[in-house]
Amino acid sequence: MNDTVPFRLSVLDTVPVFNGVPAARALRELLELAPEVERLGYHRYWLAEHHNMPAFGTSTPPVLIGQLAGVTSTLRIGSGGVMLPNHVPYVVAEQFATLEAFHPGRIDLGVGRAPGGEPATARALRRTGDPAHEGAFGEQLAELIGYLSPSAPGDRPPVAVCPAVEHPVPVWLLGTSPSSASLAARLGLPYAYAHHLNPAGTQAATDRYRAEFRPSERLERPYVAVSAQVVVAESDEEAEYQAGPAKVAQVEGRINPLTLFRTPEEAAAYPLTGAQRRFLDEYAAPQIIGGVETAGRRLAGLRARTGADELLASVPVYGLRARVRTFRLLAEAVAQAASEGASAGEPSPVTSASSS
Fold it and tell me: Residue 179 class from Cβ within 10 Å (0-12 exposed, 13-18 middle, 19+ buried)?
C-alpha cells in the first residue's frame, strides 16, 4: 500500500436494470446519483462496458462519462473499463481526448481485455480474429497510450488524435488475473483488480503487480484499486435482503443471461436449492455486505490482504434511495474505522478528491 496517498472510496457502476424499471430510467437516475456520491466525498466514478446484457445499462461508457462529468465538478469520471478488443484504439483515443478537452483533469480511461459478450455479440461489434490474447492486446494498449500522450512541439506524428492531447489522459489496466497484473506492472500503469468477479485471485494478482512494477512517466509508484460488491444498510439482515437480487442473478444469469435483476421481494421468494444457497454464501463472503460495523470489518480485511490504495464500490442495489444509502453508510464505515485507527495511533484512511 502507498502510505503517502490516503485511502480512497470510489464507484464502479454497471447501472443495474431491475424488473419493472425501464432501462432509460435507470440511466437517468445516474444524473441524480453521481452528484450525491460527489457530496459524500468519493474520489472517482467509473462506468463498465457490457453488450447484449439487458440487466446492465452500460453499453457506451464514453457517452455516460460525458453525461456524469457535466453534472459533477470534483469527481473523476471514467471507464471501468473500455474493453479494448471491441474497439479500434484510435477511436477510443479520440473519444477520451474529446472528453478531456471538455473536462480537463477529471477523465480516466480504464481498459480491459475481456470480450464483454458471447460470439454473436462479438460479430455485431465487427471483431475479427481473437485480439484478446496477450500479444495483440499489449500492442493495442501500447498504441492507445501513444495516441493519448502529448507530442513534443513540432513533432506531430503521422496520425494524431484530434483534439490534441495537452496532458496525458490517465490510463489504467483492469484485470482478474496475475497476467494482467504483470502487464500493468511492466507498463508502469495503475492497476484495478476485479475482486467482485474473482475474489480468489485478488491477493496473488495485487502482490505480483507490486513485485514487478516498473516506474514510468505516467506513474512513479504502484497504485492498486480493488473493486468489490458493496451493500451496506442499517443492519446485517437488511443488507443481506438488499443484496438478494445480485445473489439470485449469479444463479439465474447462468441459466438466462438476458434476464433482468429481480426486486428484493422477488429475490427473497426465489426457490434456491441447498447447493445454490451454499454457492451464493461462498460468493458473497469475500464481498462487503452488512451493517456499518460488518462492512467496515470486511473492508479492513480486504485492505489488509491486498494493500489496496482505493476501493471501487459496485452497488447493485434496487432503487435510487437505497443506492445512495449504501454509499453514505460505506463512507461512515470508513470514517469510523479511521477514527478507531487514529485513536490506536494508526494512519487515517481518509477519502480525497485530488487527482491520480
Answer: middle
